[in-house]
Amino acid sequence: MLDLGRTFLQSVERSPGNLAIVDGDKALTYRQWRDEIAGLAAGLGSVGLKRGDRVLAVMQNRYEMATLHWACQFAGVVVVPLNWRAKPEEIGYCVQDAQVGAVFFEGVSAPAIEAADIASGVRKVSVGMGAGAGDVLAFEDLIQPGGVLEPLAGSEDISLMLYTSGTTGNPKGVPRRHRQERTAALGHVAQNLYRRGERTLGVMPLYHTMGVRSLLSMALVDGAFVCMPKFDPLHALEQIGKHAVTCLYLVPTLYHDMLKQYVPGTHDISAVRKLGFAGASMPDGLLIRLQEVFQPELFVNHYGSSEVYTFSIEPDAVKKPGSAGRAGINTRLRVISLDSRDVGRLAAVGEEGQIIADLSGDEAFEGYWNRPDADARSIQDGWYFTGDIGYLDADGDLFVTGRVDDMMISGGENISPVDIESVLSLHDAVDEVAVVGLPDERWGQRVTAFVKLRYPADAAVLDAHCRNSDLQNFKRPRDYVFVQSIPKSPVGKLLRRLLIAGQYERVDASGNEQRPVSGAGEKS
Questions:
Q1: Pfam families per the record (predicted)?
Q2: pTM: predicted TM-score of the whole model, two decimal places
Q3: Is residue 182 in some structural domain?
Q4: Gyration radius (Cα) of the chain, Å
Q5: Is 214 among the domain residues?
């Protein structure tokens, strides 16, 4: 199989004049970008970085970040991207854990870099800041004009190492080979029906598997990657129109925020023909609104992870709302009993269980970096335990109903939050919703809905909506808490643990006063 460096050269050779990357006023063709990538790849070697070494990148989605990613693929250097909001202790941990030889950073991450525990032998490269004191080099000074691109890596070399979010304890490194990354990108192209010359909005961060996939998939189809260093819904809409973006691949939260700012006749979204989402389930209400506004040719629900890029694909998200579809073209899936580690103990049709994926798939990782303890928890008999709960319906389609850690037990019943959230999202007054189980002496956990309102409504109105839906009665929320906002991670995932911990701002049913609003009645 081709490595990623030679993969990029394919696009240069096929379509040298095609637009390859845009960042503000900077726009480069594949030929032009090749020359700058070559210069940076040579620069990596000039500071002592060699094949197999690792570099930490703590940057936003900017030209320099994308260029570094590709230069590393040619130099055989492993890129280790990290959230640009990372705290000093997380940066220090990753520097030590990955044993990096250099750290690339920009102004927004500079204070954390300065405060982090970084060994004196690690080179520092600043982006957009010029050279600094001591051993801090300037990114532009590292580029060597006239460099020639010679791929030094092969398909079995490690391409990058993603760090998982680490909601408990330290984050885990997920090393991925060139062949695994290329296969994942090929699968993404095939399953999203990308054509040559597509253009995508590069807003999902390049420290996240969705952002990396957007970058690589555009190179596979000689397409353009339009950088967005930091998401802003109005700016995103402007960039879509200005650069005739044809495909979007975002988390539901970002779609939600764009729709709130979208003004027909003001924002041109006519070039967008393909929508894809991942990272979290999409409420039915948002799904319907996106279909009405964009009227896409293709609307894909992608379910996957850093470890195994694609678990499943639903190519028509609107046709069967909530469905994550069936196993991707490089994957095998199973749903096994909730309380089992036996990969052969399959759950019955319609029965919620643990979702697991075959690690023989071409997109799958081979284990965590220096974490045998994490391997022991997540890998069993050649299968990866995703930590997600779901079920297969009578058609064989997968529905993801939550995380193992999110499962609520109320009155002895196992209750997942996703279908409750989908029902509530269909009420016009509900802007966003998250459901969690709060401690309750009688029921063990009390199903509680945290709601951000679009316009005034109260608990009784929302409870009546649930009673008139097909939601089973025991799943109905028993309390409603109206909040200023729903807490989310930087990539738009709900942070239910913060709601459970009480880290939110209450408002009343009109959205004004900060006081609790409760009570849709007892469990019945």
A1: AMP-binding, AMP-binding_C
A2: 0.84
A3: no
A4: 23
A5: no
Q: Which helix (H) or strand (E) holds 209?
A: helix 209-220
Beta bridge partners of 445: 439
Question: What number of CA atoms fall less than 13 Å from residue 213's CA on the CB side?
Answer: 32
Instruction: Give residue 143's Cα distance to chain centre.
Output: 30
Is 108 in contact with 61 (CB distance < 8 Å)? Answer: no
**Domain count along the chain:** 1
CATH classification at residue 422: 3.30.300.30
Q: How far apart are CA 104 and CA 140, in angstroms?
A: 12
Cα gap 502→504, rounded to integer Å: 6
* 125 domain-assigned: no
Q: For residue 456, give its domain range.
A: 407-500
pLDDT in 10s for each residue of the chain, 524 residues = 899 999 999 999 999 999 999 999 999 999 999 999 999 999 999 999 999 999 999 999 999 999 999 999 999 999 999 999 999 999 999 999 999 999 999 999 999 999 999 998 999 999 988 777 667 999 999 999 887 888 999 999 999 999 986 545 688 999 999 999 999 999 999 999 999 999 999 999 999 999 999 999 999 999 999 999 999 999 999 999 999 999 999 999 899 999 999 999 999 999 999 999 998 888 888 999 999 999 999 999 999 999 999 999 999 999 999 999 999 999 999 999 988 999 999 999 999 999 999 999 999 999 999 999 999 999 999 999 999 999 999 999 999 988 887 778 787 677 878 889 989 999 999 999 999 999 887 778 899 999 999 999 999 999 999 999 989 888 999 999 999 999 988 777 788 889 998 999 999 877 664 443 333 433 33
Which two structure tokens, joined as six digits, stand for 218? 């555009």
In b/e form, how buried is each residue of 312-344, taking b as 16+ CB within 10 angstroms?
bbbbebbeebbbbbbbbebbebbbbeeeeeebe
Pairing outcome for strands 383-392 and 353-358 = antiparallel
What's the rounded Cα separation, in Å, for the pair 243 and 239? Answer: 6
Place of tokens 């200005």: 242
Q: Is residue 448 part of a domain?
A: yes
Tokens 């929302």 found at: 462
Q: What is the DSSP letter of 63?
A: H
Neighbouring C-beta atoms of residue 383, cutoff 10 Å: 22
The rounded distance, in Å, linking the Cα atoms of 62 and 226 is: 9
By CB atoms closer than 10 A (0-12, 13-18, 19+), residue 96 is middle
Contact 8, 159 (CB under 8 A): no
Residues in contact with 17: Cβ distance below 8 Å, sequence separation at least 6, in sequence order:
29, 30, 31
Residues paired with 126 in a beta bridge: 105, 138
